[in-house]
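User: Predict the complex.
Assistant: Input components as received:
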Amino acid sequence: MTMNFFISQLKLNLTRKNAVLVYGLILVLVIMNYLQYVFECSGYDLLQMYHPMTLGLISEYNNNGSFLLVLYPFLVVLVAGWAYFDDYASGEELFWVTRVGKKQYYAGKILAVFFAAFIVFTVPLFLEMALDIIAFPAAATGNPNFRVPYDELYMEEIRGYMWAALFIKSRYLYVVFRILLWGVVSGILTAFTVGLSYLRIFKYRVLLFLPVYIMLNAIFYLGDILRLKFLTYYGDYLTYYDTFEKSVPAMAAVLLILILVTCGMVVMAAGKDVMNR
Amino acid sequence: MKRVHLFYCLIFSAAAGILIFMPMLSEEESVGMWELINRLSFYDVSVGASIDRFFMDLFPYILFQLVWGTYVYERFCTASIYFFSRKDNKGGWYLGECAKLYLWGVFYLVCLVSVSIAMVSLGREITLDKASVYIAAFYILLYSFFLFATALLVNLLALRIKSVYGFGIVVSVELLAAGAYEVLGNWICLTEEENNAVGMRLFALKCDPLSHLVLKWHGSFVGKVDGIINGYGLSFRIEESALAWAVAAVVVVVFGYAVIKRTEFIENEKE
């Protein structure tokens, strides 16, 4: 029963208008980005060509990604952030709670939302990766900054990447890993929003944009205030091939706190009386 | 006066003020009041820069648009039938709400400026002169029109579509306006050393609604003020910009008047 509930919720979240909208937006950006490189690289010699794994939408080298990143705090909410809000408004919450139980309902909903956001945010990027592999020669080296392999500066740059060891082992694995990470972060942020909506502190849908937006901005400004030595803008952590100083433990800590807070909100919601609307 | 709005107003202005001005405390020499205003109005953006910078600086204003984006709209949600069956003059009620929304915008900006002064004065001396007061007054005038026009537009779109999409449309327009600078950057060069923004180029810059909010590109009709802020020497006056956003606000109010007149008041399908 719980599994059925989870699958039905996942399907519902993926077919929602908003999820389709976000998916479509990322897909449009992906196609724009792909076509841009197709036109730019036409007629290039193999030696001048970029490696297919440097062309991704969320890699550091292109501008189309920055549009996506600016909208990112809103998109993670738009994709499925109102999943509970709708259930509450239509009374479906009561229906499911009586069928599957409170704990299962709240936890299952969070999981379904997490996976929905994960799928919506990663599938277009994997599609792009496949397109790049098919269309661009794998024998090409270099990236849009450096075209000469084994250049000393280029190697220096590579050492500055986050998880550089994985990149040196395999570029393909590295990109897959970064896309998965991007999906996981998006899923966590969406789940956090839905967890907050369990508490019913926000009366209007639009106000659910606030928590993630304020949090991501506050973290950025905190870097300035505390004069941290690493970057704190979320975009720098989500894109790859950026060489500025970043802190993996700080990122992990923020994500862990978000997961714990979300779990806490599920427990709180499960302790509430559903009939008391 | 609604308590929840007062709460949001104080919390947001305090949070934004602290986050934005805390880094200023790292230095010790005295600072002119106009520099604080400069920080609140896109002090580190440039033509051709990436849009994330613009969006970071829009932070306090987007918060206002989010929360006050339901200010007029909320009357159509809970107990709307009760509420509107007792209002016989729709137009008058709407104009009253507009006036209140505008005053909230002014109050929010005054809070923001006060918090910034309080924050910076903890560690540095703030020098105050007539020109600074003039700039602060025009900042509040200009940005109050901007906040009012955009927040009212969110409300009106929410009425016709849904609260979420109203906000989405306004933010998307702001995103496009910020994105336009990346395109303009290929053509206009605007740095401290080199500046070719005259004639058509300056006109193109003025066509972007966000340009009117960037204080450092502006001059003034008052000579003393012009001497302080006009680092780029553009003929782009802060008074004109305030007028431009005032006209935009009036257009939105008139548009809203038409929308409200056509909206069925006894309708209860909203959030």
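Residues 90-121 of chain B form the longest helix (32 residues).
Let me know if you want any component modeled separately.
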